[in-house]
# Entry
Amino acid sequence: QVQLVESGGGLVQAGGSLRLSCAASGSISSINAMGWYRQAPGKQRELVAGITLGGSTQYAESVKGRFTISRDNAKNAVYLQMNSLKPEDTAVYYCQIAVMTMTHRYQEVWGQGTLVTVSP
# Structure
C-alpha cells in the first residue's frame, strides 16, 4: 500500500506565493512520473505540472513562468512552488504519482487534495 500526504495549501492574496508538498510512503520500489493536478469548482480536474524520473518537466500554459515543480527522490517527495498567484488559481490541488511497488505492481496513486484559495 502506498500513501500520499499533501501539505502547504491555504489562503493567500493575489500576487502571493505558496509551496505545496507531497510525500509518498509505503511499499515503494520506485517512482516514475509525479505531478500536480487541480480542480476548481464546477470544472474538470486538470494537469498543472508534471515531472519525470529524469527531471523533465511540463506545465499547463496558464501557470508557465509562475509555478515550478520539483522532486526529491531520496524523500519520495514532489513540490510545487507557486508564485504570482491569481484568483483563477483557486482550486483543490492533488498530487499524483506513478509508482512501482515492492510487490512489482504498477499503481497510480492520488493524494487527498489540498485547498488553495487566492483572494483578489
